[in-house]
Write a structure and sequence with these properties.
Elements: H1 4-15, H2 21-28, H3 32-44, E1 48-54, H4 56-59, E2 63-71, H5 76-84, E3 92-95, E4 101-107, H6 110-121, E5 127-140, H7 152-158, H8 171-181, H9 183-191, H10 197-204, H11 208-221, E6 224-230, H12 232-235, E7 239-246, H13 252-259, E8 265-272, E9 278-284, H14 287-300, E10 305-318, E11 321-323, E12 329-332
Antiparallel strand pairs: 1-6, 2-4, 2-5, 3-4, 3-10, 5-8, 7-9, 7-10, 8-9, 10-11, 11-12
Helix pairs in contact: 2-3, 2-7, 10-11
């Protein structure tokens, strides 16, 4: 039975995904043991989980592409399942609109995306057409989205985790070596972002002190992103909508600056290779609420034009976690854009 404490606990972990229960106890008004038991139940049921992924922009290597797929009507589910099993495809969604599926692809360079889309995706039985857009800049991503279950005083008491600081890129070669060094650690945290340091040590073969130091360094630099996700039972059955927006180049900065501050926005990125230059993912309680965002944007940027809209019907995979038809996490496929290196 989901209650207000479950909702508050999940939103607290969205603020600081690895916060100890002792830190959350006072803001949430319960003892640490109760929070630990609640979280154990939520994760066992697949209703909430903490995951992680590398930030390509902070690491100085890697990129993300958004790929829309048209499929035969009788093959949508099988194509989604096939691609969800792939470590290079973090997220797979069944959508409405001009495509049947929307997937994200993680890679090191554009050529790798090209090969993946043509040789891997194009070879899956049932795929009819693909359209690829490269994410040039991610201005807001899922770790910053909140459900709104906490009041301002609770959020202030919890604070945030380590604040990403400036971290000069060591050059492509150095960045790649560093990413590969942390690959096993990130994959373990992807499966369970709250995994204790002792267990991380056992999984990676590194001393616990080294694991603790590396995790803290990765979080502080922003190269590792932690986020808490939840099933529809906890997030109020919100509706996910992709909006593809094209704005004049001279108004792009002003438009994105306004969009990233909207509470419903889970992802906002500047993209290349599409009919739009902004890809926007919004989470609302009614599909019509996305129209209000469009209307407000039209008022602020009259030249803005929505070129496509896609409502998410079902999320098959979310940042590596395989979801059942009810949106509960049931398994994990380790993210690995470097698996062919």
């Amino acid at each position: 039975m989901i209650d207000e404490l479950d909702l508050a606990l999940v939103d607290a972990l969205r603020v600081d995904p690895r916060a100890p229960w002792s830190k959350l106890a006072e803001p949430l008004g319960v003892d640490p043991a109760t929070l630990s038991r609640r979280w154990a139940r939520l994760t066992a049921d697949g209703d909430a989980w903490v995951t992680c992924y590398p930030s390509a922009e902070r690491m100085g290597v890697g990129l993300t592409a958004l790929v829309a797929l048209d499929c035969r009507a009788d093959a949508v589910a099988s194509v989604a399942a096939t691609l969800a099993a792939d470590p290079q495809t973090p997220t797979v969604e069944i959508v409405t609109g001009e495509a049947d599926l929307m997937i994200t692809v993680a890679a090191l360079e554009p050529a790798q995306v090209t090969a993946y889309v043509l040789d891997r995706v194009g070879a899956v039985p049932g795929v009819l057409r693909t359209r690829t857009a490269f994410v040039e800049r991610t201005l807001r991503e899922g770790s910053r989205w909140r459900e709104g279950a906490l009041d301002p005083s609770q959020r202030e008491a919890i604070g945030t985790g380590p604040t990403p600081a400036g971290d000069p890129h060591p050059g492509r070669g150095g960045a790649l070596r560093r990413a590969l060094d942390d690959r096993t650690l990130m994959q373990a945290l992807g499966a369970d972002g709250r995994m204790p340091f002792a267990e991380l040590s056992a999984r990676t073969g590194l001393p616990a002190t080294t694991v603790r130091r590396r995790v803290e360094e990765l979080r502080r630099s922003g190269r590792l992103v932690l986020r808490c996700d939840a099933s529809p039972r906890l997030n109020g059955h919100v509706v996910g909508t992709w909006l593809w927006v094209d704005v004049p180049a001279q108004e792009l900065e002003a438009a994105t600056r306004w969009l990233v501050e909207l509470p419903p926005v889970r992802m906002c990125g500047v993209v290349a290779g599409a009919r739009a230059n902004i890809a926007l993912n919004v989470m609302t309680h009614q599909a019509a609420d996305a129209r209000r965002i469009e209307a407000h944007l039209g008022t602020r940027v009259p030249a803005a034009r929505v070129t496509a809209r896609q409502v998410v019907l079902r999320t098959v995979k979310l940042v590596g976690h395989l979801l059942d038809p009810e949106g509960r996490a049931r398994d994990y496929v380790a993210l690995d854009p470097w698996h062919e290196l």
